[in-house]
Amino acid sequence: MSARLRVVLAPVIFGVVALLLWQWLVTAKDIQPYVLPSPSAIWGQFSDNLGIIRDAAITTAKNALLGLIIGTFFGIVWAALAAAVRPIEQMAAPIVVALSVIPIVALAPVLYAMFGAAAQTGRVLVAAIAAFVPVYVNSLRGLRTVAPLHRDLMRSYAATGWQATRAVTLPGAVPFVFTGIRIASSVAVISALIAEYFGGPLDGLGISITSAVSSSRYSLAWAFVLGSVIIGLLFYCVTYALEALVTRHRT
Fold first, then answer.
1. Which residues, at least 6 apart from 217, have a Cβ–Cβ distance to it below 8 Å?
2. Domain 34-250 class, CATH top level
3. Which of 73, 86, 168, 189 is least enclosed by beta carbons within 10 angstroms?
């Protein structure tokens, strides 16, 4: 069995076993749905309400995607500036730390008040701020990580600063940048989802989960959670595939 096949099969087998144990536990122990619905009940609600879940998932995914794009763009640009100019890095450090510890619970209502509760802008900005931090930190680390041997080699060739950056610094930073983007892809989905709990338009998976729980439709709430899991996996897989494509092209 190839290593790539093992990487794919291992989580699949683990997931199937976990679902079977989950189903057995709920059935054998007669656990009530408000505590933990069975996987079969969740799947039944998911298939019966597929259209509603799909529409809510599209809304959440759009907000997360826009936030991821915005956060990634500014994270890479700001990291490049910080790597080139040391004072910019020193000025940015406390701002990045502050952004990384701002709770979404506090940030989302403030942004709704600023941009209006009927607009998706607040949710997009929450996702963008959450995505910015890992992209910036990893990109800056990649731009700062240059092997001394490579640096000395470029100096021996009398390479200019831009030539050294293009030949050594940027290629070496690519894996770090994509690591930040992969982390940010999951964080953006989570942030956009949580932001929906605290106001804004009455759409998206977050508000749908809240509505289902408030009406005691617990299996439906878990079905919406399943929708959010699918979005998160989709974002992660797309960024992982993009990284593989870029790195394969480089090699």
1. 45
2. mainly alpha
3. 86
DSSP state, residue 196:
G
Q: What is the domain partition of the chain in residue ranges?
A: 1-31, 34-250
| Residue pLDDT, tens place only, 18-77 | 999 999 999 888 888 888 899 999 999 999 999 999 999 999 999 999 999 999 999 998
Q: Find all residues with CB under 8 Å of 199, minimum gap 6, and list them.
A: 108, 109, 112, 117, 122
Interatomic CA distance for residues 64 and 119, integer angstroms: 14
Cα–Cα distance measured from residue 237 to residue 214, given in angstroms and rounded to the nearest whole number: 33
pTM for the model: 0.85
Say which amino acid occupies 130: A
The 10s digit of each residue's pLDDT in 61-105 is 999 999 999 999 999 989 888 887 888 888 888 888 888 888 877
d(CA 244, CA 231): 20
